[in-house]
Each structure stands twice: as C-alpha cells, then as structure tokens.
Amino acid sequence: MSVTMAETEATERKKKVEKYFHPTPEQSLDQIATALLVGGGVLVLVGLITMSGNTFVGVLLMAGGIWAAIRGGQKKKEYGEAYEKAEPKPSDREMDRLLAGDLKIIEDRAMRRLGITADHLEIGAESWDPVMALLGGSPAERPKKRPLVLYGPKFSGFGIGDDGVWRFKEYEVLVVCPALHHLALFHCTLDFLSGGLSKEDTEEYQYNHVVAVSTRTTPAPDHVSLDELNTRAPDDDTVRFSKVQRRRLEVSVSNGQSMGVTVGITDEDDSSKKARLQSSGIDEVIGSIRRVLRDRS
Questions:
Q1: What is the pLDDT of residues 42-86, one digit of tens each?
Q2: Rounded to an integer, what distance in angstroms lies between the CA atom of residue 124 and that of residue 161?
Q3: Is the peptide bond before 88 cis (omega within 30 degrees of 0)?
Q4: What 8-state DSSP symbol labels residue 274?
Q5: Environment class of residue 2 by beta-carbon count within 10 Å: exposed (0-12), middle (13-18) or buried (19+)?
Q6: Strands of 258-267's sheet, edge to edge?
Q7: Taking a C-beta distance cutoff of 8 angstroms, is the pair 94, 130 a contact?
Q8: Where are the beta strands (DSSP E) in the chain?
C-alpha cells in the first residue's frame, strides 16, 4: 500500500512533536558513561601490565576494567537513545504555531461540515481570536466574520514548556457558529502529535432551546494522575496535585445535551496550585455567545 503525502507529513510531525514531551536526559549520565568507558580501558591496560608480576591481581584488574567498559557502553547507548527521543526539541513558539495552524484547519472544517459560510454568521469582529493569540498577532489580521473557537486540554500526556505553559498531546476543540436562526456547534478531539482529528460531532440548536452558556468546576476522573501524565519532567520535579479538578465551559440545551471544553485545571485542596494553560479567551467567548442569545431570544 502506497503512503500518501499527508501520511508522511503526519509521521514526520509526530516524530518532531513527540520530542517536546520527552525529558532530556541529564548530561551527567553521559559523563558517567564516558568515565566508565575510560576507567575500564585504564584498568584493562593496568591489568595487562600487572600480569607480568602478579597474574591474579592482573586478571582481577582486567575483569573489573572489562565490566566497567561494558557498563559504560550500555549507559552510553541508553543515554544516546534517550537523547535522540528528546532532542532537538521544537520550541514553545513552534508548538504554538502548530496549534494555531490546527485550530484554523478545524475552524474551516467545522464550517464545511455545518454548511455555513462567513455570510451566515451573526457575529462581527471579536476581541478574542485563539489563532492570533497563539501567533502573537492581532484579530484584525483575520476575516471580520468568523466562528468562535474554544480549545482546551484532554487529560493526556503533557509537558511543561520553558515558558511555564502546559502543552498537551490531545486537545478538545469547540467551534461555535451563531447563524441567523440557530446556533451550530462542532466538537472534536485533536491529536496534537499528528494533527489528526477524531470524535467529530456536529449539532444545531434553535436559539430558544439553548438554556445556558456557563462554566462549572467538577472533579477530574478518578484515574487521572498528573504525576503520571507529566511526561517531560524528571522524577524529582513532578506536578503534585492532591485532588485534580477541572473548569469547563459548556453550552447546554433544553434536552440535557451539552458540548464544552476544559479551560482550567486546579487542585481542589489548594487553589493556588493550577496548570498554566494557553489563554482560553473564555470571558470574551461567553460574552459574545450571550449577546447573540439575547438578541435572538
């Protein structure tokens, strides 16, 4: 079976992005491996010299040297493999540019799936634009009529960047399209390693069926352990939350259904402990949706 260009690009991207989530091994490990190799070689040489006067001691020194050299070689290989998995890392800025590109693709896909064009949208230029926020640009650089895009982490593996921001292997994305007579929603899961999408859902609701646009804080699933999900930090620098809770923005309708994304992760017992996520623009988005709902109700 032939491999398509898209599959090749996804594979290359995955190899690159995975490095971000692997811890870079301490250089001291390589230094220890080198010391074992050098020390082993020295012992073997000394053993050979010693054998002419004391065979037993010479053999012991040679055996010790061979053992040290073998261990040094093993550690050198382990260090090399770990380093290759982790380096060269994409920068925090590169990661944000990738995510911005993914969000723009998802935004366009959502409008195609929902059969909506910019002319159908009942929302003008907004102060919040996640793509421009990630790129450091201005919302004025994008079309004036565009959907509202929210994204947040899934509880998947994550790494804390040099800028202190938590970046995840998977994200939830919610695209909100306020049209003339209804509110159209597109929700999906983004595999950030490859850029692939899954669990794509679309919904359309009459405005009078939308009962709430709100945030709520709930405990994370019992199986979630941030210590285990933190793939990048060394063992002595793990993230320790006693009870993980998440803050979610949700759009709820009268039949009980809802769509939303996680916009915050905190410790239930200590509110000062929280994940530093990319800005969600949650207040601007909630305000925009509520204004449309008021105008259309």
A1: 877 887 888 777 787 778 888 877 898 888 888 888 888 888 988
A2: 34
A3: yes
A4: B
A5: exposed
A6: 210-219, 244-253, 258-267
A7: no
A8: 148-153, 158-160, 166-168, 170-178, 182-191, 196-206, 210-219, 244-253, 258-267
